[in-house]
Amino acid sequence: MADVATRTTPLGGVHGGSASVQLTPAAPAERLSLRAASGDVAALSRALGLELPERPKTSASAGGRTALWLGPDEWLVIGEGQGGLMAACAASGALHSAVDVSHRNTAILVEGPGAAATINAGCPLDLSLKAFPVGACTRTIFGKVEIVVLRTGEEAFRVEVWRSFSEYAFGLLAEGATDAAL
């Protein structure tokens, strides 16, 4: 039997927020950092079962998978529960680079009327619905760390962060949630 490393869930059991914002660690998910040329997007989209977005600040979801556009040839693909992202990409027949970053990243769900103000405590983006509608995503900074933020609802965001920075990001979000409640 081979030894397999077991990782603890970052932020396990931690919850926070305020009267206007709820902060919750997201459930573990499979994640890929995917790179491919535009000519290979169609084959990868078919293999993954969703259309890889090709415009800045956009995402696509289908069948428990979400693809976030991070650059002209780069996506973060998140699979909730079912797995198989690496195998799907391998079976696509397309030239690509897929790196499993499942254990590198974790996510924090930020929900409630003060969600945008909470994230803006450490992020300079305009997160108004007009400028950052549901489904919008981007890679940006939050305090001193890089995050990927996805708007999942009118008052809901998913903040992807490297697990080594997750306590810092959660703490800064908790401070922002307190300020958003004032």
Write the layout of secondary structure elements.
Blueprint: E1 16-17, E2 22-25, E3 30-36, H1 41-48, E4 59-62, E5 65-71, E6 74-79, H2 85-91, E7 96-100, E8 105-111, H3 115-119, E9 137-142, E10 145-153, E11 156-162, H4 166-180
Antiparallel strand pairs: 1-2, 2-8, 3-6, 3-7, 4-5, 5-6, 8-11, 9-10, 10-11
What distinguishing features does this structure have?
single chain; 182 residues; alpha+beta; 6-stranded antiparallel sheet; 5-stranded antiparallel sheet; 4 helices; 11 strands; globular
Structure overview:
Helix content is 19%, strand content 35%. The chain has four helices and eleven strands.
Largest beta sheet: strand ordering? 1-2-8-11-10-9
Helices, by number, come to 4
Structural class: alpha+beta
Write down the secondary-structure element order. Answer: EEEHEEEHEEHEEEH
Secondary structure: helix percent: 10-25%
Shape: globular
Beta content = 35-45%
Contiguous uncertain segments of 5+ residues? none
- Per DSSP E runs of 2 or more residues, the count of β-strands stands at 11
Summarize the structure.
The protein has 182 residues and is α+β, with helices and mostly antiparallel strands. It has helices at residues 41-48, 85-91, 115-119, 166-180; strands at residues 16-17, 22-25, 30-36, 59-62, 65-71, 74-79, 96-100, 105-111, 137-142, 145-153, 156-162.
